[in-house]
Amino acid sequence: MSSKGEVLRWLRRLAILVLAFTAVWSVQAAYQAIYPLVAFFVFINVGQGKCIVVIAPNGRTLLVDGGSHSFGREGWGEQTARRVVLPTLSQLGVRRLDAVLVSHPHEDHCNAVPFIAQELRPRLFWQPVVESLEPDYLAVKAAMKEIGAKVVQVGFSQRLWLDPHNGVVAEVLGPPEGMTDRVDEMDANDASSVVKVRFGKVSLLLTGDVGAMGQRWLLRSGADVQATVLDVPHHGSQHNLPEFLRAVRPKVAVISAGWKNPFGHPSLQTIAVLQGLGATVWQTGTQKSLVIWTDGERTELKGW
After folding, report:
1. How many CA atoms within 13 Å lie on the side-chain side of 219?
2. Where are any strands of DSSP class E within 131-250?
3. pTM of the entire predicted model
């Protein structure tokens, strides 16, 4: 250094970098140092798509969907994985995935999954009920085969124990029995896997893009859809039934939808119903990613 002033400027820049690193340092590590028995529900802002990760107190992980609407852009799934999803998971301390669930085989829910899987090598692939020849979904299946993940098709009432010691479990509520024979690739939204994650008194309902028909089937099946946190179906579209939202009665409702997307998501009517139920409504397109931590009793929200 040529002068004391240059040394001081260099030290200031170094201090700023250290502070910036500290600000984004692992939320998971910070909270679990204070609250050892903490789970995280993370809604990653991927634009017009969906990507959610559950981190149990023991560190085991479940990724639910991972994709973003490409609108014809080449390589958009890989860009979403490498620029958004993987850096976010790294900041949260996720070094490997235990399980991946694709709710249904549409690109905005799965086109980033092959690249995420190659990096984080999940042990289990929970595949959807409906098959598809869409290239993005075929790439998911090929990636899972390449890394040697165990493949299990979603089935009604299946359970995945993420943390048996602390009672964290993911249970399949839908599609209900009897519905699977009536769906095909054309109505894959309504055949979305619906999974409820429970930890103590707190629960998360994961819904993919299940629409009005699928919601009616869920209600008729008698499934316990009530949940603390709702992954609002189909990006908050107008196809959400008020009676379904009332049955869930969420305290927090998260809408994964891109900012100024061409589909009109989310619907103002859906938002009004949720707000009328007293739910805190979070939109990833305008409020960015969301981390919800819970000790099984309380929940706390943190924008990311």
Report:
1. 16
2. 150-153, 159-163, 168-174, 194-199, 202-206, 229-231
3. 0.89
